[in-house]
Amino acid sequence: MDRENMSVVDGAYAVAHAVNVCKPDVVAAYPITPQTNIVEHISQFIADGEMDDVSINVESEHSAMSLLVGASSVGARAYSATASQGLVLMSEVLFNVSGMRLPIVVTVVNRAMSAPLSIWNDQQDSISQRDTGWIQLYAEDVQEAADMTAQAFKIAENSNVLLPVMVCMDGFILSHVYEPVVLLEDDLIDEFLPGYSPLAVLDPDNPKTFGAFADPGAYTEFRYLQEVAMKNAIPVIEDAADEFKEVFGRYQGGLIDEYMAEDAEIMIIAMGSVVGTIKEVIPELRAKGVSVGIIKIRSFRPFPAEAIRKAVASAKVIVTLDKNISIGLGEGALFTETKSVIYNSSIRTPVIGFMLGHGGRDIPKARIEQIVMEAGEVMKRGITVESRYADLKEELL
Amino acid sequence: MKVIHAAIVKPGTTLVNKTGGWRTFMPECNYELCNGCGICETYCPDSVIVKDGDRYAPNLDYCKGCGICANVCPKDAITMILEGK
Amino acid sequence: MTQLLAPGHRMCAGCGDALATKFALKGAGDRCIVVSPTGCIEVSTTPYPESSWNVPWIHSLFDNAGAVAAGIEWGLKKLGKKEDTTVMVIAGDGATFDIGLQAMSGAFERGHDMVYVCVDNEAYMNTGIQRSGATPYDASTTTSPAGKVSFGNPLPKKNMPAIMADHGSPYVATASIAYAKDAIRKVARAAEIEGPAYIQIHAPCCTGWKFDSSKTVEVGRLAVEAGLWPMYEMIDGRIEKAKKIRDRKPVEEYLRMQGRFKHLFTMEGGEEEIARIQAIADWNAEYYEME
After folding, report:
1. What pLDDT shows up at residue B1?
2. pLDDT digit string (tens) for A131-142?
3. Could you tell me the residue range of the domain that residue A122 belongs to?
4. Cβ–Cβ below 8 Å for B12 and C213
């Protein structure tokens, strides 16, 4: 990486800067920890004359997303950022946006859901919205969160896709950390991201009706077309990453990314900032003779079924890490979905799942080592416990 | 009709839905009493009363037979009559 | 001439909402973009693949019309395409008084250039006549039914125009489908004024209020003549002129026409209830200086 062009900034700044470079026509957001820094930076850019006056302060996340529905319907490139309760308050509108096929981009600064109230990180918020029909991308570090923002607009606005995109970044861990990053290059953006050309807009010169209701005779087909668009997004996400590399010289993976995975017997599957910790642990364990690697999930929706099936070829055990839980199933989403994509294939590798890092609980390297060791035991003796919390404090129970 | 990516619809297309079939009573105008004031046209909720030359007449393809025109007519020129079908 | 709301829509025969929509479109003209939240107007005009609208129109959700309209206005401005376009919401009373109030409040506070038309038929008619914040005192609805120990809706109608005026709206008005010219003029005036304007159009509902479909305009006129529907304009929060009512009619005449008040004429204690409603009309007459 080009160290001369690097700046040490907080994650929120890097993302806000990337948003500015992508030239949205309308930004609408409502403050919520830990997203606030993004909208504060955007507001300051505007106050300092460094960004067009596109941002509007609204009275709730529900209205932020609703306002973007209107703006996107007249052809505006539209952006918001939120977290946790805010994302879930938007939920009703999220379904609406994807159904209306409006290519809005949102940064989700992942935070735990209340109750109990917690402002700290996990991914329960965005995972709870997985069926809203939004593309969900998860960033490993600040650089990726910023770069993904530009990719997100390109993916969303692709005429074969036309789906909204969430760029998910872990709250505090990424949003508030100061890291050396290359700020998204303003002079290169036009080469990568053309202006938004909508297929249809609300226009008195060419009146159209948006948001008609569908009776049972047509509803299924609109839902099916959303699924087709998600499938169409699979190569588009890969292409966006490749084109991004060509223009900006940086690559963080397509649907997935792999690290020391080619020959790994113990295969970790994870997403978000924990991937960084895991990448630190892997070489240390490799040095001790442990055959371990990681598949980083960048795109959770569309879920990269085929890419995962290919990437786990060498694995003798698969271990998923989840900062979320489906209460009543006792599993995190990555665990459930990883099992689901290999069940009907010829792959018969055991899969175990660990939930950890909920409500901001720290994930030290030792925790990852312990998980890898446990996975190693599964290789030898088979599964004893399918899914459990890796960091439960028994003494509090 | 094939569905496209979002439920976007062309304008004014409910014209295919001839709501005249809803009607039980139909308006009949005595043009000897009618002074052409157009109040019936103003208050027709279905915009089916149209000016045809000097006269106002309902487009029976869409008239639902609500009877507002007869009720608002200041000359009592419109009567709602049971439609023989 | 093309009707901006084409025939063939599925609104009930004798629908007051249809009249209010027609007048709103006449007032705003064809250079408008309409936002309709969920409600009778929405579902009865846009069954895919049909639409009655000959102006650009959007439905998003029930509770967000104010924000969607704000986004259209802000988006058009940022794209340099606002020009002469009027952004107009046409919403029911439930979407306005109740579930959409927050989005609307934010939009008015921010001062977006829009016309918000509330078509007030005094209950959730689309879902089958449930009580809303606009339902008048003692009206029987399916969620505030009259019964042996109930006179119907126990709460007075919320004063939405005052609430919107207090947001700093430059133009707030009430109108009625029974006074077409007045309603059209008020919408046209609202469209001309820069900023968020609010117009509440009283729209009797023959289905929900239970009267014959031919009497929609007649019932609407009686509401005004009885003093239960004051018609006025507010400029920058001050009432400019309220319609004068000569020989104000007793509310009993208005109530008797509608099935939703029928119980007031059969139940013990109904007379006292009617007297309470008369007191509302008397208060209106004094406050709005109708006489």
Report:
1. 66
2. 999 999 999 999
3. 3-248
4. no
SS3 A259: strand
Instruction: Tell me the chain A residues in contact with residue C103 when contact means C-beta distances shorter than 8 Å.
Output: 59-60, 62-63, 66
Alpha-carbon span C77 to C83, nearest angstrom: 8
Residue C1 has pLDDT above 60, yes or no: no
Separation CA A348–CA A371 (nearest Å): 21
Average pLDDT in the A173-200 region? 97
Distance from CA of B50 to the nearest CA of C (A): 9
A-chain CB neighbours of C76 within 8 Å are 74
State phi, psi for A108 to the nearest 5 degrees. Answer: -100, 115
Instruction: Give ipTM to 2 decimals.
Output: 0.97
Give residue A388's identity as a one-letter amino acid code: R
Q: CA A325 to CA A327: how far, in whole Å? A: 6
**Pairing of β C57-58 and β A209-210:** parallel
Task: Round the CA-based radius of gyration of chain B to a whole number and report it.
Answer: 16
Q: How far is B26 from chain A (nearest CA, A)?
A: 31
Judging contacts by C-beta atoms under 8 Å, the chain B residues touching residue C218 are: 71-72
Domains in chain B (CATH in brackets) are 31-82 (3.30.70.20)
Residue A210 — pLDDT band, cuts 50, 70, 90?
very high
pLDDT tens profile C76-130? 999 999 999 999 999 999 999 999 999 999 999 999 999 999 999 999 999 999 9
pLDDT > 90? residue B2: no
Percent above pLDDT 70 for chain A: 99
How far is the first Cα of chain C from the last one, in angstroms, to the nearest whole number? 40
- Asked if residue A13 and residue A96 are part of one domain, the reply reads yes
Tell me which of A187, A213, A248 is where a domain ends.
Answer: A248
Of A248, A276, A293, which residue sits at a domain end?
A248
Q: What is the fold, at CATH topology level, of the domain defined by C16-287? A: Rossmann fold (3.40.50)
DSSP C6-55: -S---PPTT-HHHHHHHHHHHHH-SSEEEE--SSHHHHHH-BTT---BSS
- In this structure, the answer to whether residues A107 and A200 fall within a common structural domain is yes
Task: Check CB contact of B15 with chain A, cutoff 8 Å.
Answer: no
DSSP helix/strand/coil, B8: strand
Which of B5, B10, B11 is closest, CB to CB, to A225? B5
